[in-house]
Amino acid sequence: MCLPACTMKLADALSRRRFLQQAGVAACATAIAPSAAKASEPPRHSLQRVVDLTHTLSASFPTTWPNAFMLEQVSKLGKDPWNAYRWHLQEHVGTHLDAPLHCTQGPSADRIPAEQLVGPLVVVDLRARASTSADTQLTLDDLRAWERQHGPIAAGAVVALYSGWDVRVHDARKFFGLDDRGGFHFPGFHLEAVQFLQEQRNVKGIATDTLSLDPGQSADFPVHHYWLGCHKWGLENVAGLGQLPATGSTIVVGAPKIAGCTGGPSRVLALV
C-alpha cells in the first residue's frame, strides 16, 4: 500500500514521463511528415503533349500491294450482340513497322524487345530539297549537318526522315511520285547514312514519312537489306513529323505482337 505522498509523487513522475513520450512522438512525426508528404507526391514529368504519328488505315490508303486492306463485318449489332470485323490485310500497309524478318532471317516483329521500341527521336528535315527533287536522299552529309547544329545523335535514338510527303497521302499518284512511265519518285535513306547510324551511332530504328526506307527509284533496296540485316527495325508512312522539334521528343512504337510476323500496321506516338 502506497502512502498519499508516494502516490502523488508517482503520479507526477508518470505525468512527466507521459509528457516526454508524447513530445517525442510529436517531434518524430514532425520530422517524418515532410518526407512522407514528399514521397506521396506524384512524379513530375515534362510531358506537354502527345503527337500521333500514325495515318488512319483504310482500303483507300496508297500501297503497291493489291487488295492490301479490307474489313469484313462478321457480326452486326442489333442482329447480333455486338459489332465485329474480320481484318484482311497485307502486313506492309499504312503506317507500319518493318521487322528484320521482312528482308532477312532476323527476328519477327513479336520478338523485338519492348525497350527497343521506345527512344529519343531525331527529326532530319529534308522538305526544302524534297520539294524540288523527289529523288533526294537523307545522306551522311545531312546527318553531319544535323549534328553540327544539335550535337551527336545519341545511342539508342530513332532517326526520322521528314520530307513532308505525308500530306500527299490522299493522292496516290503524288504519294508514289509516279512519272509518265509509271516509275516511283520519293525520298528515302542513303545506304551510307544508315551504315553510319548503325556503326557509329548505334541507333535503335529509322523512320520515314514516305512509302519506303529506300528512295522510290531503288530497284534492289540496299537500305532494307543492310538495316534489317543488322536486326534493326524501320517505320514507313509515318505522319505528323512537322509537329515535332528536331530533338527533344520521345517516340513510342506500338508494333504488332503477332507470332512470326514480318511487320505490320503500328500506332506510333511521339511524347513532347
Describe this structure in words.
With 272 residues, the chain is an alpha/beta fold. The chain has a domain at 91-271: 3-Layer(bba) Sandwich (Glucose Oxidase, domain 1). Helices cover 27% and strands 21% of the residues. The strands form three sheets. The protein has a nine-stranded mixed beta sheet with strand order 1-13-11-5-7-9-10-4-12. A two-stranded antiparallel ribbon has the order 2-3. Helix 6 links the parallel strand 9 (205-208) and strand 10. The chain starts with a helix and ends with a strand.
Question: Which CATH-level-2 architecture of one domain?
Answer: 3-Layer(bba) Sandwich
The major sheet is characterized as: 9 strands, mixed
Which topology of one domain does CATH recognise? Answer: Glucose Oxidase, domain 1
Instruction: Please tell me how large the radius of gyration is.
Output: 30 Å
What's this entry about, in short?
The chain is an alpha/beta fold and 272 residues long.
Which features would summarize this protein structure in a list?
alpha/beta; globular; disordered N terminus; 6 helices; two-stranded antiparallel sheet; 272 residues; single chain
List the helices and strands and how they pair.
Blueprint: H1 4-40, E1 50-52, E2 69-75, E3 84-89, E4 96-98, E5 118-125, H2 127-130, E6 137-138, H3 140-150, E7 158-162, H4 172-176, E8 188-189, H5 191-199, E9 205-208, H6 222-229, E10 233-236, E11 249-254, E12 263-265, E13 267-271
Parallel strand pairs: 5-7, 6-8, 7-9, 9-10
Antiparallel strand pairs: 1-13, 2-3, 4-10, 4-12, 5-11, 11-13
Helix pairs in contact: 3-5, 5-6
